[in-house]
Structure formats: C-alpha cells, structure tokens
Amino acid sequence: MTSPALKALLLDLDDTLLGNPMKTFIPAYFRALTEFVTEIQPPERLIEQLLIATRMMDGGDGVGPSNGEIFAEAFFAGLGVPREELEPVFERFYAEAFPKLRPLTARRPAAPKIVEWAGQRGLQVAIATNPVFPRTAIEQRMEWAAVGVDRFEYAHVTSYENSHATKARPAYYREILDVLGRGPEECLMVGDNWNWDIVNAAEIGMPGYWIADPSSPPPSAGSLPVGQGSLDDFFDAARSGALEESLAVRTSQRLAG
Ligand SMILES: [Mg+2]
C-alpha cells in the first residue's frame, strides 16, 4: 500500500509566517481599538465585551453559526449601542488604525518562499490562522508577511466570516478538510501553538510541524509532530524532501500499528 502523499499545506500566520508575539500585539490592538471608538464607548466596557465575545467564539462546534455571527451577537448585545452604529466604526478602524500596528510585527524571509514552493509543488495552500478576526485583519497581516492574497493563490484562508469553530477545537480542522476536499493524512499543519496547531490537528489525524526551538520539549505526551524547528528549518526540510520522508514514515507506522 502506498502512503498518501502530501496534498495540502496548512500554515498558521502569527509567529509562524509572521513574527507577531500575541503578548504585545493583542494589548496594542485593544488599545488602538478602544482609542478609536472612545467617543461612542467607554474603554473598560468595550474591552470587557470584546473578551467575552472572543471567548464565546471558542464554543463554536463547526456546524452552528459562524464565528463572526457568534461574536456579533455576544458583543453588540452587551453594549448599549446599536450594531448599525458601531459596525461602520469598526470597519473604519480596520481601514485606518489597524494598518498602524504593522511595526509590531516582523517579516520572516522564509514565508513567501514556502508558499511559492508549495505552489510549485502543486500543493493546496491554506492560511490556517485562528479565525477570531474579520477577513481584512487577516489579509492585512498576510500582506505584512509578504504572502498577500494578491501574490499567491490560496485554497482557503480561515477568517471569522467563513469559520464555525476556532483553533480551540478540532472541529476547526474538520471544517478546513471539508473545504479542501482532503483527508487529514493528506495535509500538514504548520504552527507555533502546541495545543491549537499541533494537538487539535492531531486529534483528527492530521500531522503537524511545530514551529518552536528545536530543543523545546513537547509540552504534552502523544501527538508528536513530524518535525520541530524555526520557519527556516521547516523550509529546509520541505525542499530537501526530508519532510515528506518523515510523513511517509509516520504513515507506514500508522498502517503497521
Ligand atoms: Mg501562531
């Protein structure tokens, strides 16, 4: 029996394709957002509602309402301002203020090379970033990473409009498989977050490559990734063929076991 070859590459965005530590980015993002809407909404209330609505999205099961719908319902319902009034302000925020967060992020030169390599190799490429942001916030960060949607062809980009689960649940990966029309063993998830990117993908049988210091011990047993290292290390493994060898070994072990 031949092992199913790699057909699709799922790439996380923040701290995978784009240097963007969430510890600095999220507070700066919240600050920028509250400053932007300060005349309409006091900051404390807004942040509280943002946190509540963001947490609500983690409850999505992949078949119910979209993350964006879950967010809107929780967020606007909790504020005393009509949705029709606040939504255009948010749109302006993403057009005018969000782009100013770019200096907090850092390009990783390997990112566009990997997407280009995958395209030449005939793989479907999906940007598998946690879909708790609207599409514009994701497309802008892709652009910052030099892997913009105008530059490469993508089979899928998860955003809160088109996703019905977050990375907090394996259902997120099941939904991607449906969109790609692939089985889990034909895909590889590449990401830095152990639970979100590696464990929850493995939960549905999808192998992962962990973007982490090669000496970091895996935080939990089981669901071992097929590889571990920097984005440069991943690219080296991909183009040398070492990655596909590891995937083939993984598959034959599974078939034997
Ligand atoms: Mg990440």
Question: What does this 3D model show about the protein?
Answer:
With 257 residues, the protein is an alpha/beta fold. Helix 2 packs antiparallel against helix 3 and helix 5 packs parallel to helix 9 (231-240). The strands form two sheets. It has a six-stranded parallel β-sheet with strand order 5-4-1-6-7-8, sandwiched between helices. A two-stranded antiparallel sheet has the order 2-3. The two termini are 14 Å apart. Strand 6, helix 8 and strand 7 form a beta-alpha-beta unit. It folds into two domains: 8-20 and 106-256, 3-Layer(aba) Sandwich (Rossmann fold); 22-102. It has helices at 22-36, 43-57, 67-78, 83-97, 110-120, 135-144, 171-180, 194-202, 231-240, 242-256, and strands at residues 8-11, 18-19, 106-107, 124-127, 156-157, 187-191, 208-211, 227-229. Bound molecules: magnesium ion. Magnesium ion binds at residues 12, 14-16, 191-193. Residues 12, 14-16, 191-193 line the site of magnesium ion (MG).
Domain unit count: 2
Question: Within the largest sheet, what's the order of strands?
Answer: 5-4-1-6-7-8
Bound molecules: magnesium ion
Number of strands: 8
- The span between the termini is 14 Å
Radius of gyration: 19 Å
- The H-and-E topology, N to C, reads as EEHHHHEHEHEHEHEEHH
Beta content: 5-15%
The portion of residues assigned to helices is: 40-55%
Going by CATH, what is the homologous superfamily of the largest domain? HAD superfamily/HAD-like
Which term fits the overall shape? Answer: globular
Which runs of at least 5 residues are low in confidence (pLDDT < 50)?
A: none
CATH topology of the largest domain: Rossmann fold
Overall CATH architecture of the largest domain: 3-Layer(aba) Sandwich
